[in-house]
Amino acid sequence: MTRREFITLLGGAVTAWPLAARAQQADRVRRIGVLMPATADDPEFQARVGAFLQALALSSWTIGANVRIDTHWAGADAADIRRHAAELVALAP
Fold first, then answer.
1. Mean pLDDT of the chain
2. Alpha-carbon distance 53 to 57, whole Å?
3. I need a surface site. Which of 51, 68, 75, 88 has the fewest CB within 10 A?
4. Which whole number is the average pLDDT over 62-75?
5. From the centroid of its chain, how far is CA 33?
6. Torsion angle, alpha carbons of 32, 37, 40, 45, to 10
7. Percent of the chain with pLDDT strictly greater than 90
8. pLDDT band at residue 48, thresholds of 50, 70 and 90?
């Protein structure tokens, strides 16, 4: 192998290497924290969460594949809201 062939081969490998490295990386799973000031059986807030999930699906987000949703239902009690907010912050969404 001549020096010129070696340099050409090395230059081609260096050029293709970033493409191969990016192709091997898996999509990371994004985490979204949702804190609702209602109970889980509240129909109005269930509708809001459903609309949110539908909008995510329309934007090519798939729960479990590239996004994870952490939903906390705190009710109307301020102490519960603070506790659930602290739990969500600890999850680092």
1. 81
2. 6
3. 51
4. 91
5. 10
6. -80
7. 53
8. very high
Q: With contact defined as beta carbons under 8 Å apart, do 51 and 57 qualify?
A: no
Tell me, letter by letter, the H, E, C secondary structure of 25-85: CCCCCEEEEEEECCCCCCHHHHHHHHHHHHHHHHCCCCECCCEEEEEEECCCCHHHHHHHH
SS3 63: strand
What DSSP designation does 16 have? H
Q: Per the structure block, which two tokens stand in for 37?
A: 């000031």
Given a cut of 80, is residue 26 above it in pLDDT? no
Q: Cα torsion at 6, 12, 14, 15 (round to 10°)?
A: 160
**Other C-beta atoms lying within 10 Å of the C-beta of residue 36:** 18
